[in-house]
Design brief:
This protein has one domain. It has six helices and eleven strands. Strand 5 and strand 6 form a beta hairpin. Helix 2 packs across helix 6 and helix 3 runs antiparallel to helix 5.
């Protein structure tokens, strides 16, 4: 009995110090910009996505995507849905509740998608889809997306789609309706599965099992409220973004 107690204590200590979340890490290469995109997913589907060229990152928590802006060691957090809603209050509405429809099917108005052959990259198999209409200057120009339907890559795709939307939203005041069209196109493409080669723009280079501590997917600060975001946007407009 005396010898058993230390063993039990040791096992308990190891269990307490072990990472509580296990999942997958996927790394994409962006050949044109010499950077990488790392997507890490816990076993409950929460995900963290970061660009190697920036300290900022995104968190997909409970199906909601949050933008984490890191400056001077301080993190500011905003839910993507709230950023879009705040923008619609400050400017003539653009998104009109678009991000409330996450998960619903959406028909992209300008693109045409044709399934092609089976191919593989980085040990993952997918189907090539030929997509036309992505280039307004040449609507017939084909772009090939290699898209996987591997179940363990599904949360990787969800994080990647949200990350791409987070890059589109800030451009909305300049491109207006084109922002909605880009989000529609993105949703239509990701509805096919998880892109593992997006026309050479970013390519999957590795996937591996990974374990993460609990805190890795926690929000580093309280998200800004819709009211706070509206106020910040109005102040920024008054000061010219200074």
């Amino acid at each position: 009995m005396r010898r058993t107690l230390p063993i039990i204590a040791l096992l308990a200590a190891l269990a307490a110090s072990a990472p509580a979340e296990a999942g997958i890490r996927a790394v994409y290469d962006d050949p044109g910009k010499t950077k990488q995109l790392r997507i890490e997913v816990a076993d409950n589907g929460d995900a963290r996505i970061a660009d190697s060229a920036s300290d900022d990152y995104g968190l997909l928590v409970g199906g909601e995507f949050y933008i984490v802006d890191v400056e001077g060691g301080k993190s500011t957090v905003a839910r993507l849905k709230d950023v879009a809603a705040a923008m619609d209050q400050v400017l003539p509405p653009i998104f009109k509740g678009l991000f409330e429809k996450i998960g619903e099917s959406m028909k992209a108005r300008k693109i045409r998608i044709e399934p092609g052959r089976i191919d593989s990259i980085a040990g993952r198999t997918g189907r090539i889809y030929v997509i036309r209409g992505l280039d307004d200057s040449d609507p017939e120009k084909p772009t090939e997306f290699l898209i996987s339907q591997d179940a363990d890559l599904k949360p990787v795709g969800a994080a990647l789609e949200s990350f791409m939307n987070a890059a589109i939203v800030p451009m909305a005041p300049l491109i207006r309706d084109a922002a909605v069209e880009l989000i529609e196109e993105t949703r239509a493409i990701f509805a096919l599965g998880t892109p593992i080669d997006a026309g050479g723009r970013f390519k999957l280079i590795s996937t591996e099992p990974a374990s993460f501590p609990d805190v890795y997917f926690r929000l580093p600060a309280k998200p800004q409220s819709l009211k706070e975001l509206v106020s910040a946007m109005k102040n920024s407009a008054k000061t010219g973004g200074q």
